[in-house]
Amino acid sequence: MSVYHLWENRFREEIALDRGLNKKNDLLNQHMADLAKIRHDILKCRGVATSKNSGKCVDLRWFNVGDEIFIQDWMVYEFMEAFGLVYPGSGELDPDQIRYKFHGIVQSPVELRAEVAEDLLFGEIRSLSGRPVQLDSLRDIFKGFEFYVDGPGGGGTARGVDVFPVEGNDKAATLVAYAGRDFVQKVRDGRASANLPLGASVPRVETRRAVPTRWTRGPEVVAEALAPVGHWYDLEPYEQAIGTWLPLVSDVGDMYEGQLRAAVHGPRDRRRLLLTLSLDETVAAHVKGRQAQLYVPLDLHG
Fold first, then answer.
1. Fewest 10 Å CB contacts: which of 142, 155, 215, 240?
2. CA–CA separation, 22 vs 256, rounded Å?
C-alpha cells in the first residue's frame, strides 16, 4: 500500500513531467496498475482477492479469486526484477565460478587462521550432511577467486589458492588463501579475525540471477523467476536436468543442493520460469533452523 501511495502521489508525476508528458496520468505502468488492484482488495475487500480487482491483474498474477492476500518475499523480488533491480545485492560472482556441484550442507562461514606461512590463511570446511566433501567442485569455485574477509579488528582482501583433503576424513577439507603478510600478521597476533562466507555472494552479472525460493510442503521449494524485459529463460536445459542436483546458496553463506523435480514456463511467455526442487530432510531442517533464505542461480538469455 505504501509503495503505491508513493507512486501515485509523488513519483508518477515527477517521472511523467521529466519524460515530457503533460500530466501524471499520461504515464502508464502495468505493474503499478496491478498493484492498485491488489491494494484495493486489501483496503476495501478485507484482504481477499476479488474478480473485479486482483483477478484482473495482467503481470502480478499472484492471487486467484477468493485467495487471502499475503505479500511474500518472492513477490517482492518479482516486482523489483520488473524494474531492473536485483535483490539482494551482496557481492558478485563470475558465472564460471558458480557452476559447482556440492552434496548436502557445507559449513560456512569458515573461520580462517594464520599458521606458519607469512602470507597465507587456512580454514577447514566440513560437510554437515555426512556426505563426502567434493574437492574438485570446491577447487573450481575457490582457486583464484578474490574475496573480502572481515572480522573484529578490520578486514582484508584474500585470494583462493587451493583446497586440500584432510587425512582420514573425507567429510572435511582445508582451504588455503593468499591474504598478504600484513593482514596475516594481524590475524596471527589476534588483532584481526578472518571469516569467509563461501556461499553468501549472489550473482549480479547481466546474464545471471539468483532467484529466491519459497517453501511449498515438507522439504520442497519452488523458485519462480521473472526475467527482466528483453531477457528470457531457456526451459530445455532444465527439462533435461530433471532428477539432477542444482546448486543453491543462502543469504547467510551456506551452500546446498536441491534435486530438480519439475521445470515449466509461466502461463504466458518464456520470461517466467518455475522450478520445483526437493531438499534433503537434513538440509531443510538446517535452513529452517537458521531462518535462512535460499537462492537458485539461473542463466538469462536475450
1. 240
2. 52
Question: pLDDT for 11-37, tens place per residue?
Answer: 898 888 887 888 888 888 889 999 999
pLDDT at 141 over 90: no
pLDDT tens, residue by residue, 201-223:
444 445 566 677 888 888 899 88
**pLDDT higher than threshold 90 for residue 74:** no
Architecture of domain 201-299: Beta Barrel (2.40)
110-114 and 120-126 strand pairing = antiparallel
Q: Which residues pair with 147 in a beta bridge?
A: 158
State the Cα–Cα distance between residues 4 and 43, nearest whole angstrom: 12
Q: Give domain limits for the chain.
A: 2-71, 110-196, 201-299
- Residue identified by cell 505504501 is 2
Nearest to 167 by CA among 211, 124, 118: 124
Residue 94 has pLDDT above 50, yes or no: no
Q: For residue 100, is pLDDT > 50? A: no
Find all residues with CB under 8 Å of 283, minimum gap 6, and list them: 104, 105, 129, 219, 256, 257, 258
Cis preceding linkage at 109, omega within 30: yes
Q: Provide the edge-to-edge strand list for the sheet that holds 169-178.
A: 146-149, 156-166, 169-178, 120-126, 110-114, 194-196
CA angle 86, 207, 83 (to 5 degrees): 35
Average pLDDT over residues 130-139: 73
